Amino acid sequence: MDPYLQTARVTLRPFGADDADLLVELDSDPEVVRYLSGGAPTAPEVVRDQILPSVRAGYDRWGGRFGLFAADETASGEFLGWFCLRPERDGPLDHVELGYRLRRAAWGRGIATEVADALLTKAFTELDVRVVWGATMALNRGSQRVMEKVGMTVTQTLETPEDMLAVEGADLGGFQYEITRDQWKERGALPS
Ligand SMILES: CC(C)(COP(=O)(O)OP(=O)(O)OC[C@H]1O[C@@H](n2cnc3c(N)ncnc32)[C@H](O)[C@@H]1OP(=O)(O)O)[C@@H](O)C(=O)NCCC(=O)NCCS
Fold first, then answer.
1. How far apart are CA 181 and CA 163, in angstroms?
2. Which of 31, 42, 145 to mutate to test the pocket of ligand 1 (most atoms within 8 A of CB)?
3. Which end of the chain has less Cβ packing within 10 Å, N or C?
4. What are phi and psi of 156, to 5 degrees?
5. How far is the CA of 58 from the centre of ligand 1 (A)?
6. pLDDT tens for residues 3-46?
7. What is the pLDDT of residues 151-192, one digit of tens each?
8. What's 5-187's CATH class?
């Protein structure tokens, strides 16, 4: 299957039906899911029976234009985690969410910034997107820095959703970040 996106170091590709173990392992690291579930792993049967089928249904729903994609290191083929670029389920196709989740071994190498930047380019030059947004908890400084580095800015503060009230820092809420196509054009290329 053709890659969805390639950057200097990373290839994004659709998840296959046999990739459940990659997602199970990713979500089994308490540090990776610290600001998502409070550190609790996602049950393997939930990944197999709900999450992976839903991710794969998205490829059909959006004709491969949007979705949640596996990130592999191109040189080694090693699984790094995932990135998503997708509208809300029945939302407008020009208003899409950016998201990312990487294995701990991949952190701190500029991978999230590299791929997020390439996803913005794809969104605004190929996919007719008008706004890219992302949401993060107030304590998740790493996630915020990725969005700040690619030129996104805070547009609103968020209350923590009911199902995340047990997560560390839930009382501090979160932030929604956005960038419009016009802001992205004004931003220009990131310094290399
Ligand atoms: C958030 C995440 C994707 C960042 O990935 P990454 O590849 O390590 O990020 P980068 O290397 O591109 O770093 C981007 C910037 O964030 C900073 N950063 C990364 N992690 C950080 C942390 N924990 N605290 C503070 N800053 C951090 C980096 O220093 C860099 O900024 P700088 O260039 O000014 O130094 C990764 O930590 C992750 O997968 N976390 C778990 C899942 C998650 O929280 N996803 C987001 C949910 S909203």
1. 32
2. 145
3. C
4. -160, 155
5. 26
6. 999 999 999 999 999 999 999 999 999 999 999 999 999 999 99
7. 999 999 999 999 999 999 999 999 999 999 999 999 988 987
8. alpha beta
Instruction: Report which ligand 1 atom has the smallest distance to the Cα of 143.
Output: 1
* Residue environment code for 11-24, b if the CB has 16+ CB neighbours within 10 A, otherwise e: bbbbbeeebbebbb
Q: Which among 58, 57, 83, 61 is positioned nearest to 70, based on CA atoms?
A: 83
> What gap in Å lies between CA 32 and CA 28, rounded to an integer?
8
Ligand 1 pocket check for 142: Cβ under 6 Å: yes
Exposed/middle/buried for residue 119 (C-beta within 10 Å: 0-12, 13-18, 19+) = buried
Residues 6 or more apart whose CB falls under 8 angstroms from that of 49 comprise none
Q: What is the CA(75)–ligand 1 centre distance, in A?
A: 22
Residue 112 Cα, ligand 1 centroid: separation in angstroms? 7
As a whole number of Å, the end-to-end CA separation of the chain is 30
pTM over 0.85: yes
Q: Is the CB of 109 under 6 A from ligand 1?
A: yes
Nearest-CA residue for atom 30 of ligand 1: 145
